[in-house]
């Protein structure tokens, strides 16, 4: 029972932490660009404001337009809740292994893209079309990276992968390095970060994610934005906890859980700073250069998998 | 009574034949088709379903000799778990088609097409499919196969007044018979070694590896052609769209699965020892079909054609899973082979459900708007809410999204592919993950395809006037769709139960099932072990429902729950017109550009006589140029050479006859 309680706590924690991570990335980025930037807690204030504001829906929208934010939010949240954040071996982890996780994110994306096309404006369709292009190329790369880990641990459960990693000690496996590279590239694309998409742009010809949200207001917009932030947190946790799982609580004592929380916050803060640095140094790519970028990710994923099955199995 | 399921199955057969006979009177009384023939068809489906379920639950294995056929070749029938699964598949879809068809065939009444042909051949088509699944000797199997192929030819040619339909039907007939010939030859090899045409003799036969390989290749060619595997898929996107929509559902949802049945029966049951290279062949061809199918589906703008191409893709996935099963079986991992086989069967079942659902949806759109072109549709969700909702479930299922059924089978295929580390050969170990990369790419592209389909057809605003005035379809039609949509959800949420039903097949063919799948209770699907992988489909429904319910309650409490309607914002431009929306072609353009190598694209501007400018886009299949055109040319030129014999002079013909007889006499002696 206590395990389910901690699982619930962890699920609430990922919803609560997501805006903080976004605020942190924005803050670091502002500092790197010599701006003062908004306060760390600004995303929470934004959410609150959007929740209070009146919600407007276009005349031409179908019921799907109003349901989509809830589905996107819940699917993303459920995906995030199954990733071990502060403690391993929670019962929620059994609901979904890595493949289901990818599936849940795909479910959210499906509705996001449909919602973009629903009102029947010029931009929504453009955003949906581009989003599906990017995800079509990113998803196989993601699965390849994930399969490398899964084949090493002989398990597609994230807990299994992390446990394998914790007990085996850190071996500098070439396959892990490739998989890590692939996962980072995919995370940039899937979370709509520079160089694939710019989360702060509203320039019509370059945007992808924002184009699908143009018609949303009020709490619908809040849910959509929040879901995007949770997705960023999810990928962040995936990167830091799967490749560097140290510190995570393997038993449910308060001390271990506290250590797990501190560890993951520190790791995410470092990752966020790295992301901010990367976004400051890089420029956004043209849309038709994105396939090249994602092919690189796919290639890395495949190389990881092949170097695993050729070099490491049986060795 | 051990034979009860078999008797039920034969009853279903008689009902199907009855449904074929009734419309003979429909020339006088057109309503008979709707009031008797179609309900009988649905009833036959229901009875077949009961027979199949009974077989699977009781695990019975009944056979009988029918008092029909040639004196020295009586017809054998048999109902075992493998036939049972496919009876269930046929039964589920036919039942739904029966519900749907009643209202759908109404608009053919008073048309110029022959209702006798429609009703009669539909019944024969179903009877043929049922008989293929029940046949226990090659003789009956081939007869049933031909009944199925020929009756479906007449259904494809149903609206024969358009030249394109006649062409499609002819191509279908041609390829069905080339495939049928290959199957016949394959049975010939098996019968030669077994010393008889019944399947029991073939099962007992000891084939040399070379001849086993030949039998496999012939079966793969024949059944693969019928299943529409690339590059032999070209007939499929031509033939399936032109049949009436409820028949398209049967052809794409069921007939292709009958080919899968034939393949499993021949290769895993009759052929004996499996060679690893067979598995590799299947994985390669399956992967190619999956990728080609989905990419061509993505660029189509004709809804039914798009769905037909997507069948090529899904059958590719089924064959990837079958390839994994053969691979694991040949390398001595029967339990993993069982997992892959069960995954293949599961996917076949799922595809039957969602593809039929989507074809019925396309039929409903056609019925209400007389439109198959996506670029003319739009906003149909508000015009046809039921069809729209069911169609959405079909789109989610086919895109393999949790918690719907397509996801479960793809998840199982991934799980069995990830067991590749068990293989000893490094080449095979790296080949299997590459196949799963293809599968992953396919899955993502399918999602893009169906976002396009749903977004263009059902969302946005109507792109033409007649679509704007579409009416909801009659109740019977959405009842059929609703049944299939409900089954899609059910098959997605209760995977352990479905796996339990499929298990006897793996037991029968491979000697072992997947007993671990439900070992942790019905809530958790654990195909190999709980540590390796687990998926709880019921909880992926339940937990989100809880969260969403809480959120709704929370917002509903507040005063600001109500939303205000306003004009679309669209970045502050003037009010958007329907013509400003993304069209099906523009949605697919970025992906088309990335995968440009695979397509033959003819794109440009056409200047009309009145000075108007129109955008032109035609996308053709490269398979035509690479495979079909050379074959057609070769046939043409050899025919021309043979035609030299035809001099028109009787004396020359008699001379040829004499020479032939002499040569034959010499050969025989």
UniProtKB/TrEMBL annotation, chain A:
Keywords for the protein's UniProt record, in alphabetical order: Membrane, Transmembrane, Transmembrane helix
Protein name: Formate hydrogenlyase subunit 4
TM stretches of this protein: 6-25, 67-87, 93-112, 133-151, 171-189, 228-249, 255-278, 290-311
Pfam families membership: NADHdh
Species, as recorded: Allochromatium tepidum
Subcellular location: Membrane
Topology with respect to the bilayer: Multi-pass membrane protein
InterPro entries: ComplexI_Subunit1, NADH_UbQ_OxRdtase_su1/FPO
Chief location: membrane
From TrEMBL, chain B:
Transmembrane segments: 6-26, 38-62, 82-102, 114-133, 139-158, 170-193, 213-235, 247-264, 276-299, 306-328, 348-369, 390-414, 434-457, 478-502, 535-555, 650-668
Name the UniProt record assigns to this protein: Hydrogenase 4 subunit B
Statement: the UniProt record of this protein carries the keyword Zinc-finger: no
Domain NADH:quinone oxidoreductase/Mrp antiporter transmembrane, chain residue ranges per copy: 135-420
Organism: Allochromatium tepidum
InterPro entries: ComplexI-like_HydComp (IPR052175), NADH_UbQ_OxRdtase (IPR003918), ND/Mrp_TM (IPR001750)
Main localisation: membrane
Pfam families on file: Proton_antipo_M
Topology in the lipid bilayer: Multi-pass membrane protein
Coiled-coil ranges per UniProt: none
Compartments, as annotated in UniProt: Cell membrane; Membrane
Alphabetical keyword list: Cell membrane, Membrane, Oxidoreductase, Transmembrane, Transmembrane helix
């Amino acid at each position: 029972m206590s395990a389910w309680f901690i699982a619930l706590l962890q699920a609430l924690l990922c919803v609560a932490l997501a805006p903080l991570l976004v605020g942190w990335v924005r803050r670091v980025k502002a500092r790197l660009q010599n701006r003062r930037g908004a306060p760390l807690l600004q995303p929470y204030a934004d959410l609150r404001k959007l929740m209070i504001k009146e919600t407007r829906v276009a005349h031409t929208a179908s019921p799907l337009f109003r349901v989509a934010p809830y589905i996107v939010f819940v699917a993303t949240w459920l995906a995030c809740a199954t990733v071990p954040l502060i403690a391993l071996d929670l019962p929620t982890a059994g609901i979904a292994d890595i493949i289901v996780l990818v599936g849940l994110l795909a479910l959210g994306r499906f509705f996001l893209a449909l919602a973009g096309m629903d009102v029947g404006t010029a931009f929504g369709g453009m955003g949906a079309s581009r989003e599906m292009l990017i995800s079509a190329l990113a998803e196989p790369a993601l699965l390849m990276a994930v399969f490398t880990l899964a084949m090493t641990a002989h398990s597609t459960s994230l807990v299994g992968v992390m446990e394998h990693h914790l007990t085996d000690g850190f071996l500098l496996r070439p396959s892990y390095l490739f998989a890590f590279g692939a996962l980072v590239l995919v995370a940039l694309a899937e979370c709509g970060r520079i160089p694939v998409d710019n989360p702060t742009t509203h320039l019509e010809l370059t945007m992808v994610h924002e184009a699908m949200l143009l018609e949303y207001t009020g709490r619908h917009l809040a849910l959509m934005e929040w879901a995007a932030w949770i997705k960023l947190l999810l990928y962040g946790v995936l990167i830091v906890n799967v490749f560097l799982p140290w510190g995570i609580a393997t038993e449910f004592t308060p001390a271990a859980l506290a250590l797990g929380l501190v560890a993951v916050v520190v790791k995410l803060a470092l990752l966020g700073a790295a992301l901010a640095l990367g976004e400051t140094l890089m420029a956004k790519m043209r849309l038709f250069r994105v396939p090249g970028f994602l092919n690189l990710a796919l290639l890395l994923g495949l190389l990881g998998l092949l170097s695993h099955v050729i070099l490491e199995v049986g060795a | 009574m051990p034979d009860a399921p078999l008797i039920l199955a034969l009853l279903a057969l008689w009902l199907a034949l009855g449904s074929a006979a009734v419309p003979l009177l429909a020339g006088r009384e057109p309503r008979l088709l709707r009031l008797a023939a179609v309900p009988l068809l649905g009833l036959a489906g229901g009875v077949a379903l009961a027979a199949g379920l009974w077989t699977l639950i009781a695990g019975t294995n009944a056979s009988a000799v029918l008092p029909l056929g040639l004196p020295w070749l009586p017809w054998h029938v048999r109902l075992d778990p493998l036939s049972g699964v496919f009876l269930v598949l046929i039964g589920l879809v036919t039942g739904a088609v029966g519900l749907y068809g009643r209202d759908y065939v109404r608009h053919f009444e008073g048309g110029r097409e022959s209702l006798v042909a429609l009703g009669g051949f539909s019944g024969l088509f179903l009877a043929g499919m049922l008989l293929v699944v029940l046949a226990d000797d090659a003789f009956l199997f081939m007869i049933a196969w031909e009944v199925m192929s020929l009756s479906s030819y007449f259904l494809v040619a149903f609206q024969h007044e358009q030249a394109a339909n006649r062409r499609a039907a002819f191509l279908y007939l041609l390829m069905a018979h080339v495939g049928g010939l290959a199957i016949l030859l394959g049975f010939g090899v098996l019968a030669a070694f077994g010393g008889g045409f019944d399947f029991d003799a073939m099962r007992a036969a000891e084939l040399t590896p070379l001849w086993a390989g030949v039998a496999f290749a012939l079966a793969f060619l024949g059944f693969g052609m019928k299943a529409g595997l690339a590059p032999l898929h070209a007939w499929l996107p031509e033939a399936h769209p032109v049949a009436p929509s409820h028949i398209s559902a049967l052809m794409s949802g069921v007939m292709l699965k009958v080919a899968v049945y034939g393949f499993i029966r021949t290769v895993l049951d009759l052929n004996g020892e499996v060679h690893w290279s067979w598995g590799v062949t299947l994985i390669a061809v399956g992967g190619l079909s999956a990728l080609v199918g989905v990419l061509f589906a993505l660029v189509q703008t004709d809804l039914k054609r798009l769905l037909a191409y997507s069948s090529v893709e899904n059958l590719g996935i089924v064959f990837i899973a079958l390839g994994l099963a053969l691979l694991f079986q040949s390398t001595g991992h029967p339990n993993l082979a069982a997992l892959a086989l069960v995954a293949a069967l599961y996917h076949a079942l799922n595809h039957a459900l969602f593809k039929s659902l989507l074809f019925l949806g396309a039929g409903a759109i056609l019925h209400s708007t007389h439109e198959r072109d996506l670029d003319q549709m739009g906003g149909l969700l508000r015009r046809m809410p039921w069809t729209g909702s069911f169609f959405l479930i079909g789109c989610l299922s086919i895109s393999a999204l949790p918690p719907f059924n397509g996801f479960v089978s793809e998840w199982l295929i991934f799980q069995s592919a990830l067991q590749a580390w068990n293989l000893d050969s490094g080449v095979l170990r790296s080949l299997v993950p590459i196949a799963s990369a293809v599968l992953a790419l396919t899955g993502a592209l399918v999602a893009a395809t169906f976002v396009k389909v749903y977004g263009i057809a059902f969302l946005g605003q109507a792109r033409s006037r007649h679509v704007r005035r579409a009416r909801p379809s009659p109740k019977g039609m959405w009842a059929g769709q609703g049944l299939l949509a409900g089954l899609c959800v059910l098959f997605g949420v209760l995977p352990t139960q479905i796996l339990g039903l499929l298990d006897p097949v793996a037991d029968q063919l491979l000697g072992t099932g997947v007993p671990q799948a439900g070992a942790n209770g019905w809530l958790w699907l654990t195909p190999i072990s709980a540590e390796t992988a687990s998926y709880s489909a019921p909880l992926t429904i339940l937990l989100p429902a809880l969260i969403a319910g809480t959120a709704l309650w929370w917002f509903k409490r507040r005063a600001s729950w109500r939303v205000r309607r306003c004009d679309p914002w669209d970045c502050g431009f003037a009010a958007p017109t329907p013509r400003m929306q993304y069209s099906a072609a523009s949605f697919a353009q970025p992906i088309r550009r990335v995968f440009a190598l695979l397509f033959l694209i003819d794109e440009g501007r056409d200047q009309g006589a009145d000075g108007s400018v129109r955008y032109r886009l035609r996308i053709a299949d490269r398979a035509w140029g690479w495979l079909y055109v050379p074959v057609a040319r070769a046939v043409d030129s050899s025919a021309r050479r043979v035609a030299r014999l035809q001099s028109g002079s009787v004396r020359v013909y008699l001379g040829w006859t004499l020479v032939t007889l002499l040569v034959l006499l010499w050969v025989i002696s």
